[in-house]
Amino acid sequence: MNFLIDMNYEVQIAAELQIKPHQVDATVKLLDEGGTVPFISRYRKEATGELDEVQVAAIRDRVLQLRELAKRKEAVLKSIEEQGKLTPELKDKVNAAETMSKLEDIYLPYKPKRRTKATIAREKGLEPLAELVFEQKSIDLEAEAEKFVDAGKEVNSIEEALQGARDIMAEWINEKAELREKMRKLFLEEGVFSSKVLPGKEQEAIKYKDYFDWSEPIKTAPSHRVLAMRRGEKELFLMLDSVPEEASAICQIEKMILADAANSSVEQVRLAIKDCYRRLLKPSMETEVRLLTKRKADEEAIKVFTENLKQLLLGAPLGEKSVMAIDPGFRTGCKLVCLGPQGQFLHYEAIFPHEANRRSQEAAMNVKGLVEKYAIEAIAIGNGTAGREAEAFVKGLGLPKSVIITMVNESGASIYSASDVAREEFPDLDLTVRGAVSIGRRLMDPLAELVKIDPKSIGVGQYQHDVDQNALKNALDDTVMSAVNGVGVEVNTASKQLLTYVSGLGPTLAQNIVEFRNENGPFKSRSQLKKVPRLGDKAFEQAAGFLRISKAKHPLDSSAVHPERYALVEQMAKDVNASVSDLMSSEELRNRISLKNYVSETVGLPTLQDILEELAKPGRDPRESFEVFAFEESVNSMADLKVGMKLPGVVTNITAFGAFVDVGVHQDGLVHLSHLADRFVKDPNEIVSVNQKVQVTVMEVDIPRKRIGLSMKSDPFAERGRDSKSRSAEKRPIAKKTQRQESEGSMADKLAALRGKFSG
């Protein structure tokens, strides 16, 4: 992919991102040379001026946008030139267009058209009449129109002649770039989303009840409501409009087009304006605005998804321990597997702890025996159906206190178990057994296991199936790659799927590494990676720093220090009369190093500081330490919940309007944005993260609708009366009904905010 851009683009991007042009220039060159976002941000800090991953990715995305705009400009100029209508002024206008919509407005009068009303009127010879009327001078309108009445040309009356002239004028008005820009702004600033239920669909569309008679300003409509209304429309339950008041729109057009006079020509133009708006401008602008708002809503939804996914991927790992995993169930029993410290499959059987005494006792004996036989250090229990019951059963067995018993979110485990990846890993195992293996491995290392599953199946998204799928995939790929490379990968134990996301590798090289490892045994050094088929110097440069070899001969092979800096570290060690290993183990030796002595044209203080930090904690895992979590033992179903209860819970999903929390009853509860903290919260990510352990208070239990309302406020009932009054008094001048207070938007993360600048 070619990332080269001209200097004007560099200046433009630098201004948009509030960085220096030379930073953009350096980053683009590195991208063009095949550099990945993680590699550039981690190992090329001097070149980019210490740009982080978000900024590097924003430059990459903006460059691609501008290249697409440039390609479209070339096509537009070529088309106009072929028509013989390209003037120097028009060429300058095209080249100056900053967005695709402005470019298309300029091109519209020259764009090849299908046969329109205006085309037909021109074929009847009515364009001179349209030109005369459009001057809006005082003329004998009927007499002038009479000149164009000719049965041979199918103009049979004065009114037909005037109608044709109005059709032509309507097209002229529609093609005025300045007017279209004003209309676009009006639709965005004053437009209103209005949704109504389709007659007769009230019962079938009950899940969209909030939108049966709903309206709110386009500019403040939050992404989740935009996507909900669009989904309702797509499923043929709702009618959705997104327009401003017609009178306001027509008034603005009249101000730009109508002459300050009162005559019959002006009235004809006035009629043409109304026709233009209703037949041409309104449908066109509504389509554009819906695309723009959809893009914005997509960005917000994708932002929610990627933030949740990142937090889930970076969940605390238990580490290399012998694990028993249980995929719970009632009728078909619980699928139990035992895994070795590296996640290797050791044993499988089905147990039936929830049946009659004999089978329950048999299950208890089997679990105890397996814990002892395989020296089990932790038991992972899926949080699906029968999960709490299975947890209670295991906890009641009197196992050694050293054995960790914990629930694991099993979302997507069934997707994995039926996937090609699972079949490749365990061709001889049943689907349900593979699912249990996935549950156990998730406890050991969430990142290594979750990369095997399509992120959309993990259950942390918001309308993920409604958004632009290419944009979603790109964002999720960025997120997974950032997480994988941020943690680092042990090359001798990593799966093909995990290696795929390492900077510079991809599916083919990941497969080649696994095959080389299987044929030749564990890698003994990073340099040995160069022997892997098709893994050339560039791929090695991009990947090496993110790959770890824990028992390598060279101590730096287990660290994040890049091989290109080994000589530098060896020189540091030599200067303090020590080995590299001594330098890594001794803080006193590291304190004797003066970094300024090692600054060169290619290595600056940022890289030197990174190296010194890495020497202190080589190959450190940036993820938090694992902590055991347990639900309230007396609460196992929604029927056990009572308003006012205070319970421990785990955040499972974050949306623009709040966070969903698992309290152990097989139905997540919602902590609305207004109940996340004692203070005002605009973005839920300010307060919570996926997998975070929280304390919540039960506010509402609606068993028929399977809804649980929760609060994280210190005293959620203290101001309930005042809050309800303030909510009822909340100024929503257009919104007609709402069942709960919702966020009017959430603070986008850095990249989403930057991308937002480029919309349009």
Automatic annotation (TrEMBL):
Q: Which PROSITE patterns match?
A: S1
Q: Where is the composition biased (Basic and acidic residues)?
A: 716-743
UniProt-listed InterPro entries: HHH_9, NA-bd_OB-fold, Ribos_protein_bS1-like, RNaseH-like_sf, RuvA_2-like, S1_domain, S1_Tex, Tex-like_central_region
Q: Where is the S1 motif domain?
A: 644-713
Positions of the region Disordered?
Answer: 712-760
State the CDD domains in the record. Answer: S1_Tex (cd05685)
Where would one find coiled-coil regions in this protein? 155-189
A single GO molecular-function term is:
mRNA binding
| Keywords, in A-Z order | Coiled coil
Keyword Transmembrane listed? The answer is no
Biological process terms from the Gene Ontology for this record are: nucleobase-containing compound metabolic process; translation
Assigned GO CC terms? cytoplasm
Q: Mind telling me which PANTHER family this protein's record contains?
A: 30S RIBOSOMAL PROTEIN S1, S1 RNA-BINDING DOMAIN-CONTAINING PROTEIN 1
Q: What is this protein called?
A: S1 motif domain-containing protein
